[in-house]
Specification:
The structure is a single chain. The chain has a domain at 12-110 and 161-281. Helix 2 crosses helix 5 (102-109), helix 2 (13-37) packs antiparallel against helix 11 (225-252) and helix 7 (131-148) runs antiparallel to helix 14 (283-303). A two-stranded antiparallel sheet has the order 1-2. Helix content is 71%, strand content 1%. It has helices spanning 2-6, 13-37, 43-64, 72-96, 102-109, 112-123, 131-148, 161-181, 190-211, 214-217, 225-252, 255-258, 261-277, 283-303; strands at residues 152-153, 156-157. The two termini are 26 Å apart.
């Protein structure tokens, strides 16, 4: 009886597992798809078109299902979240992938959990993190320094510093948007909220493209079929499947647990970049990857540990709502 009440309102296990699989594997493949799309399309325009198309399709579908019309405050929140996640986060990735291999881009984006832990701690009134978390943060920064630092290590140079800076800034934006989305006033429907975030982020990316002069360089007639197919893949799998699954998981799970996608994405991206794009995998990359992913594991496993909870037993009948709604 108690277990049944405790589990009320929780999504089915298969649904959670499917969402994690989409975030783990599908998102890992999007880094290579972005690299291919950028072969003949400008970065911000490509990213904007991807999210505007996916957002419009998802919005129309959600409204046809009977979801209520969003309010002005909902649109404002969606614009902020979309701007942080998609213009700041994804925009940093598409800009950087003009300068760095797709696998290394995924590796630097794996620093998102480090930012999440630091931002989450600062938002709660900063206290000295536990030793395990401090060690994880230190290891993560050391891994980034090894990857992007100057000089040669094991016969290879560091990553382009401008591209690395764009990726680290994008990771910071992504972590900020992810944490803010948990408390932002958004529609109750995750699908409708996701659609609005993609529309808001896509609009911000359009503005970024206009400010960077991309509209003068855009030539759709010169776009290769390979790049257009990559954009279609990003719309269908990266946005409609992967991003929707990510936003939904943020509502039903905890940020540290959702951030574990950072373990898998770099492995998938590095392998696909090596197998299909001829991107080199050097010893420097492998050592830095081990250090960064190890840091992420240290941080998220500590944060994901269950805490002891005192349960007050009442003889009153349970509420019809079961559990409180996730933030």
């Amino acid at each position: 009886m108690t277990a049944a009440v405790a589990s009320a309102g929780r999504p089915p296990g298969w649904k959670v597992a499917s969402a994690f699989a989409a975030v783990y594997v599908v998102w890992g493949s999007t880094y290579l798809a972005i690299k291919i799309a950028l072969e003949s399309l400008p970065p911000f325009w490509m990213a904007a078109s991807r999210f505007l198309i996916a957002g419009a399709l998802l919005y129309v579908w959600a409204r046809r299902r009977g979801e209520p019309r969003p309010t002005r405050i909902h649109w404002r929140s969606a614009l902020i979240v979309g701007g942080l996640l998609l213009m700041g986060g994804n925009g940093g990735v598409v800009y950087a992938e003009q300068r760095v291999p797709s696998g290394l881009a995924a590796l630097l984006v794996a620093t998102v959990p480090l930012w999440m832990v630091m931002l989450d701690g600062a938002g709660r009134g900063w206290r000295r993190p536990p030793v395990q978390v401090l060690l994880g943060i230190g290891l993560g920064l050391a891994g980034v320094a090894l990857l992007v630092g100057p000089g040669r290590f094991a016969g290879s140079h560091g990553v382009d510093p401008i591209g690395a800076g764009a990726l680290l800034f994008g990771a910071l934006c992504w972590a900020t948007g992810s944490l803010y989305s948990r408390r932002a006033p958004l529609p109750a429907s995750p699908l409708l909220g996701t659609a609005m975030e993609m529309l808001g982020g896509g609009a911000c990316l359009l503005v970024a493209g206009a400010l960077s002069g991309e509209w003068q360089r855009l030539d759709l007639a010169a776009a290769s079929p390979r790049s257009l197919l990559a954009v279609a893949y990003l719309v269908a799998f990266g946005s409609l499947v992967g991003f929707t699954a990510y936003v939904w998981l943020l509502r039903v799970s905890t940020p540290p647990l959702v951030a574990t996608y950072a373990y898998v994405n770099p492995v998938v991206a590095v392998f696909l970049g090596w197998a299909f794009a001829g991107e080199p995998v050097t010893l420097r990359t492998m050592v830095a990857a081990a250090v960064i992913v190890g840091a992420v594991v240290l941080i998220t496993t500590y944060r994901a540990r269950p805490q002891a909870v005192t349960v007050e037993v009442k003889h009153d009948p349970p509420s019809a709502n079961g559990n409180a709604k996730a933030a």
